[in-house]
Amino acid sequence: MRTYYSLLVYLAMPFVLLYLAFRGLRDRNYLKRWPERFAFFDVPEATGAIVVHAVSMGEVNAASSLVRGLGAMFPAIPLCLTTVTPTGSERVRALFPEKVCHVYAPLDLPGSVRRFFDRVRPRLLVIMETEIWPNLYHEANSRRIPIIIVNARISEHSIGAYRRLRRLTADALGKVSVIAAQSEGDAARMIEIGADRERVTVTGNLKFDVNLPPSLLELGDSLRLAWGADRPVLTAGSTHEDDEGPLLEAFKGLLKTFPTALLVLVPRHPERFGRAAQLARSAGLRVSMHSESPGCPRDTQCFVIDSMGVLLQYYAACDVAFVGGSIAAVGGQNVLEPAALCKPVVVGPHTFNFRDILKQLVEAQGALQIQDAQELEDAVRRLFQDPELRDRMGLAGLNLVNSGRGAVQRTLALVKNLLEAC
Fold this sequence. Notes:
The protein has a seven-stranded parallel β-sheet with strand order 3-2-1-4-5-6-7, with helices on both faces. Helix content is about 50%, strand content about 15%. It has two domains: about 1-205 and about 405-420, 3-Layer(aba) Sandwich (Rossmann fold); about 215-405, Rossmann fold, CATH 3.40.50. It contains 18 helices and 14 strands.
């Protein structure tokens, strides 16, 4: 099966490169550092690293506490982070400007994977969430490099595709030393697609161990003072285009009741910054871009944040947080970040990426789930009108986050055991 898989990957390469070139039309960073994707890069100064693979910005954020823990627990072992997307790369460099080596992960071609291992010579692979790469896993196994999948998850939405490829996934997962799943359901689904039951354990979700700088709430307060402390603020984070149409419709309705309200719009992908601003202007809103007016002029109705890695400070500054990717059918983004900032959370109907977490948050009364623009308008209006309700929801979300902490320490203990056994 792996031979057939490798052949398909080779045949797909022209389309992969065309995809990177197409993405590069909107985000020039996709046109850079292509040799790294085939593992052509300078050999790091220190080899024998723990390699942590996190696909994009969300996974890098989730891995950040674990990476810091690895650095503290194993100060003599170098760390190397790999990503797939430019946004993930930028986030690594923002969080760890000097502490870790960073390169793009190799495309899963036999030759690229071998070059990657020859250059980095890792002692352990730590794979975030569900990245199953047969050639990468095969090469690590042939070199006796242990693999641990951490924060492992498979949603009910995606399990069907994995079932159809079970022979391939079972072969790859058979080379993994430990799988640390987010939940019992994720553990069961990992076993269903071929993981060895004896190698699967439940450690919880690393995203509960969100590490917030002490100054973040103070920064949020200073932003609110600059905008107007009494001004109702809705921050919409990690939005996609299909979120923004209903969101803008709902916000226009809110302006009838709250004429001074401010929508802080934070698109998920940098190539969409301009498009998001255009949609807001087409909806009749007065729009400012962060890059042009960092202070947000007082007459602004929609403030578009065209910068990466700053979402948390705008969650900290809001009255209500809408988490994107949830009206758009992409499965939702991280609801724990605004909850950890004691903010009431509103999400759309499509949350399969965070189904278990959202269920807990809704049951704890820290979040509201809406179906459409009208329900979104009604929910935010109720929250704008009732500060006590906002406080209760925010505190409920914060308590849930605090009760779920501990996954980082449990994961670090597994890593320690693997390294000691090498």
